[in-house]
Request: fold
Amino acid sequence: MPSDTASIEELACAGCHESVVDEPPTGWPAAAGQPPEFSHRDGSVLCPDTRGRLREPVEAR
Reply:
Protein backbone atom coordinates (compact mmCIF):
# COMPACT_ATOMS: atom_id res chain seq x y z
CA MET A 1 0.00 0.00 0.00
CA PRO A 2 1.55 3.39 -0.98
CA SER A 3 2.28 5.97 1.71
CA ASP A 4 1.13 9.60 1.54
CA THR A 5 4.12 10.87 3.50
CA ALA A 6 7.42 11.84 1.93
CA SER A 7 10.72 10.77 3.44
CA ILE A 8 12.93 13.45 4.97
CA GLU A 9 15.28 13.16 1.99
CA GLU A 10 12.42 14.31 -0.28
CA LEU A 11 11.63 17.47 1.73
CA ALA A 12 12.96 20.98 1.14
CA CYS A 13 12.46 24.45 2.57
CA ALA A 14 9.53 26.14 0.83
CA GLY A 15 11.48 29.42 0.66
CA CYS A 16 14.98 28.51 -0.47
CA HIS A 17 14.49 24.88 -1.58
CA GLU A 18 17.44 23.64 0.51
CA SER A 19 17.27 20.23 2.17
CA VAL A 20 15.77 20.06 5.64
CA VAL A 21 16.29 17.89 8.72
CA ASP A 22 13.61 16.63 11.07
CA GLU A 23 15.03 18.45 14.10
CA PRO A 24 13.98 21.72 15.72
CA PRO A 25 16.07 24.80 14.94
CA THR A 26 19.03 25.31 17.26
CA GLY A 27 18.73 28.09 19.80
CA TRP A 28 14.91 28.24 19.63
CA PRO A 29 13.90 30.48 22.59
CA ALA A 30 11.53 28.88 25.12
CA ALA A 31 9.54 32.14 25.19
CA ALA A 32 8.63 31.58 21.51
CA GLY A 33 6.66 28.45 22.38
CA GLN A 34 6.95 25.01 20.87
CA PRO A 35 9.72 24.87 18.25
CA PRO A 36 9.04 23.85 14.65
CA GLU A 37 9.66 20.18 13.80
CA PHE A 38 12.02 20.96 10.89
CA SER A 39 15.07 23.14 10.26
CA HIS A 40 17.74 23.77 7.63
CA ARG A 41 20.74 21.44 7.75
CA ASP A 42 22.73 24.17 9.53
CA GLY A 43 20.12 24.26 12.33
CA SER A 44 18.51 27.54 11.29
CA VAL A 45 14.77 28.14 11.08
CA LEU A 46 13.12 27.41 7.72
CA CYS A 47 12.55 30.52 5.58
CA PRO A 48 9.40 32.43 6.58
CA ASP A 49 6.73 33.52 4.11
CA THR A 50 6.27 37.19 3.15
CA ARG A 51 4.21 37.77 6.31
CA GLY A 52 6.96 36.34 8.54
CA ARG A 53 5.12 33.10 9.30
CA LEU A 54 7.11 29.90 9.54
CA ARG A 55 6.35 27.37 6.82
CA GLU A 56 6.34 23.61 6.61
CA PRO A 57 8.81 21.95 4.25
CA VAL A 58 7.59 20.93 0.79
CA GLU A 59 8.22 17.84 -1.26
CA ALA A 60 11.13 18.48 -3.62
CA ARG A 61 10.57 17.20 -7.14
Observations:
- DSSP finds no helices and four strands in the chain.
- The mean pLDDT is 91.
